[in-house]
Amino acid sequence: MKWEIIIQAIGALLATLISIYQIKTNIPRSRNKLKQDLEILRLLSPDSESYKLIKKSIDKDINTIYALKTRKGSYDLNINKIIDLISGILFFFIGSLWTIYLMSQSEPNLWIIVSIIMVVGGLGQILAGMGNKRIV
Question: I need a labelling partner for 85 at 20 to 30 A (CA). Which of 1, 34, 43, 106 fits?
């Protein structure tokens, strides 16, 4: 069994997963959906449990869309940002090492495309983990 094929398959899978995750996390919830939730919230009684649940979801979406500051210029650091930062650093370094390895070989190798996707995806994860995004 060739271990190189298994390593390349794992690399391709990781590059695909990080690309999907990047696309999913960088597309904000649409404002139309937020508007619909606000209309539903207006119809509910403020005392109901559904009202509180929808209100919490709306507040979270507004904070995500507008990247509101929490207090005195500092941003809220949550576990998702920490995961983004750590996974971004890992994917960046693993992709970089894999790219260097593939470039050092004497024959051309198309797997270098996957390794470059890992590097770019890792950079995106690092940027996502470093600060709030304001998407207007």
Answer: 34
In a domain, 135, yes or no: no
Tell me the H-state helices in 71-111: 79-104
Give the pTM.
0.49
pLDDT tens-digit series, residues 49-81: 888 888 898 888 777 766 654 444 445 557 777
Does residue 63 contact residue 29 with C-beta atoms inside 8 Å? no
Spatial distance between the Cα atoms of 35 and 20, rounded to a whole number of angstroms: 27
In a domain, 35, yes or no: yes
Q: Give how far Cα 120 sits from Cα of 13, 16, 55, 89, 113, Å.
A: 15, 12, 36, 11, 11
Q: Under the phi-then-psi rule, with left for phi > 0, alpha for psi from -120 to 50, and beta for the rest, what region is 70? A: alpha
Q: Would you state the structure tokens that stand for residue 127, as one six-digit string? A: 């940027």
Contact 41, 58 (CB under 8 A): yes
State the total domains in the chain: 1
Q: Are 124 and 25 in contact (CB under 8 A)?
A: no
